[in-house]
Structure formats: C-alpha cells, structure tokens
Specification:
Elements (H helix, E strand, L loop, with lengths): L1 E2 L3 E4 L6 H8 L2 H4 L10 H13 L4 E7 L4 E11 L4 E8 L9 H15 L5 E7 L3 H9 L3 E12 L2 E11 L6
Parallel strand pairs: 5-6
Antiparallel strand pairs: 1-2, 2-3, 3-4, 4-5, 6-8, 7-8
Bound molecules: coenzyme A (COA).
Length: 173
C-alpha cells in the first residue's frame, strides 16, 4: 500500500468492481474520460481479468485515510526500456472533487514511479475543457508539451487534447 498525506493507494480487488461500474456509469465523471459506452459488470469483470495478466498496466484504488474508496488511478503502458508510463486518474465520488485528494494521490504515485520504479517520465492526455484536472496536474509538476487539435469529439463538436508530462529531474515532492 502506498501512503500519501490524505490518501492511500491499494491494489484493486474483485469486490471493488461494482463500485467501479457505478462510478463509470456516471456521465459527470465519464465526460472527462475516454470511456463513452454504458459499462456492464460483465465488461468490467473482463477488464479486471485482463488486467491481472498485464505486466505493464497497474491500477490502484484511491482511499481516504478512513479507508473509503473514492476513485481509481493507474500507470499504463509502462515502458521499461525508455523508463516512462502513462498516468490515468478519476475520482468517482464527486463530493471529493476539488479538495486536494487528486493532487495527493498523483504526488504519491509519482514518488513511487520515480523513486521505486525508476521511471524517468510520466505523461498523460487531458481534454482541454478539463480545467480542474489541468490545474491539478500543474500542481504536481506536469507541463504542457503539446496540443492535439480537434482530437476529441464530444457533445456535438470537436475539442483539443493537451499532452502533459513530468520528468524525474523536474519533479518535486
Ligand atoms: C481530475 C481529478 C482527478 C482532480 O482531483 P481533485 O481532487 O478534484 O483535484 P485537487 O483538488 O487536488 O486540485 C484541483 C485544483 O483545481 C482547482 N479547481 C477546482 N475546480 C476547478 C475548475 N472548475 N476549474 C479550474 N480549476 C478548478 C482547485 O481549486 C485546485 O487548485 P488549487 O489547489 O490551486 O485551488 C478529479 O477532479 C476527477 O477525478 N475528475 C473527474 C475525472 C477526471 O477529470 N479525470 C482526469 C482525466 S484526464
């Protein structure tokens, strides 16, 4: 288990899957994610079975200090040769948005990525209209490296996506 100031990160269990399905069927959450189909338990179970077989994708449940699960995050496409990975995160319990949990979870995972996994770069993509997430990533040391123009079609029109990344040499706890 990884410990932050406000959160703990633990491995997901099969018993967590109904919670993930509830979070991921909330369009207020998924409007910021690449997911767009309604999600069934069967699909989520299949995702979990596949996850167990993949070495280059690790998912964590974000819990409060009291042990309440509030969201999910992961390091994906871990590339051991080039020492980089893609970070993904969502807090499914919307009451916990904007209260510093995301920042603490990301800082905790970055510390693990740089100091334990010996990664050199953590990157992500974020929708341009997701200003809360962008602010959160900036607080964690991510810088914007590029703009993918009209890369996303949502709600009847195209939007840009930003590519952001943090390097080990510029990362602060
Ligand atoms: C993105 C997410 C993980 C961030 O976690 P969080 O706990 O909400 O973020 P934090 O509270 O740590 O930081 C958010 C920052 O943005 C600010 N903020 C909050 N709402 C904002 C808004 N609508 N616009 C701009 N900034 C906003 C906060 O004030 C805070 O900055 P500050 O500390 O300088 O005041 C979380 O909001 C979430 O899961 N959202 C839905 C799914 C999602 O967007 N996932 C990311 C996909 S790339």
């Amino acid at each position: 288990m990884l410990r932050g100031r406000k959160v703990r990160l633990r491995a997901p269990e099969r018993e967590d899957l109904p919670l993930f399905v509830r979070w991921l069927n909330d369009t207020e959450v998924t409007r910021y994610l690449t997911l767009y189909w309604p999600l069934s338990m069967a699909e989520e179970e299949q995702w979990f079975e596949n996850l167990l077989k993949r070495e280059n994708d690790r998912v964590f449940v974000i819990e409060t200090e009291e042990g309440k699960p509030i969201g999910n995050m992961g390091l994906h496409n871990i590339d051991w040769k080039n020492r980089k990975a893609v970070l993904g995160i969502f807090i499914g319990e919307k009451d916990y948005w904007g209260k510093g949990y995301g920042t603490d979870a990301i800082k905790t995972l970055l510390r693990f990525a740089f100091e334990e996994l010996n990664l050199n770069r953590v990157e992500l993509r974020v929708f341009e209209f997701n200003t809360r997430a962008i602010r959160c990533y900036e607080k964690c040391g991510f810088v914007t490296e590029g703009r993918l123009r009209q890369s996303l079609f949502r709600n009847g029109r195209y939007h840009d996506e930003l590519v952001m990344a943090v390097l080990r040499e510029e990362w602060k706890v």
